[in-house]
Amino acid sequence: MKDLKVVDLMVPLSEYATVSEDATLYEAVLELEKAQEEFDHTRYRHRAILVMGHDGKVLGKLTQLDALKALEPKYDNMLERQRSHQLGFTKEFMKSMLRNEHLFASPLENLCLNAGKQNVKNHMHTLSEGEYIAEEASLDQAIHQLVMGHHQSLLVTRKGSISGILRLTDVFAAVYHTMRECF
User: Fold this and answer.
1) Is 148 exposed, middle or buried (0-12, 13-18, 19+ CB in 10 A)?
2) pTM for the complete prediction?
C-alpha cells in the first residue's frame, strides 16, 4: 500500500465542483450537477462542493448531507442541542422527534425554495486538521485518516495549497480492485 500515493487517486481541484463563498445553496447544487455531468463517467460522482474564498483558497466543504440539513432550519438547534448524529437513537425516538419538532411541516417545494436562497457559508463545514493530506502520502496513511475521522473525503495539499480532493469512493475502488486481483 505504500507504493500507491494519494496523488495517484485524487481528483484535481480543477475537476471538482467549487463555488464562491457568496454563492447560494441553489447555485451550489447547480454547480454540483454540472460537475457531475462533466466528470469522467467511469468514476463515482461528486458528493460535495468546495466553497472558495475571495482569495481563491478553500474555506470549507458543502456535502450532500449539509444541503439536506439546510432544508429544515430546526436541525441546527436540534443537532447542536442533542448531538443526535453521534448518539444511537432508536427509530421510534427519531420518528417522535419528527412529529414533536414539526419537522418538514411545509411542502417540500417551500423548503427547497427557502434553502436555495441561503448562503453556502451558513451550511458548509470548515475542515479540521485531520481532513488534509499531502499528495505524496501513502494509501495506508489516507485510509487511516478516512477511517479514524469518519471522513468522506480529504483535501490534498501540495506545498501548502490545495491541489485536489481524495474521495473515500476512489480509495475504496482502489482497494476493491486490488482485492479482486488477489483472488
Assistant:
1) exposed
2) 0.79
**What was the pLDDT predicted at 84?**
47
Q: How many angstroms separate the CA atoms of 163 and 181, rounded?
A: 30
DSSP structure string for the chain: --SSBHHHHPEEGGGS-EEETT-BHHHHHHHHHHHHHHS-TTSPPP-EEEEEPTTS-EEEEEEHHHHHHHT-THHHHHHHHH-TTTS---HHHHHHHHHHTTTT-S-HHHHHHHHHTSBGGGT-BPPPGGGEEETT-BHHHHHHHHHHHT-SEEEEEETTEEEEEEEHHHHHHHHHHHHHHH-
User: Measured between alpha carbons, how far is 120 from 67 in angstroms, rounded to an integer?
Assistant: 9
Rounded distance between C-alpha atoms, residue 17 and residue 53, angstroms: 14
On average, the pLDDT of the chain sits at: 87
For residue 75, what are the contacts with CB-CB under 8 A and spacing of at least 6?
A: 69, 103
Cα torsion for 158, 171, 42, 57, to the nearest 10°? -30
Mean pLDDT of 102-125: 90
SS (H, E, C) 2-34: CCCEHHHHCEEHHHCCEEECCCEHHHHHHHHHH
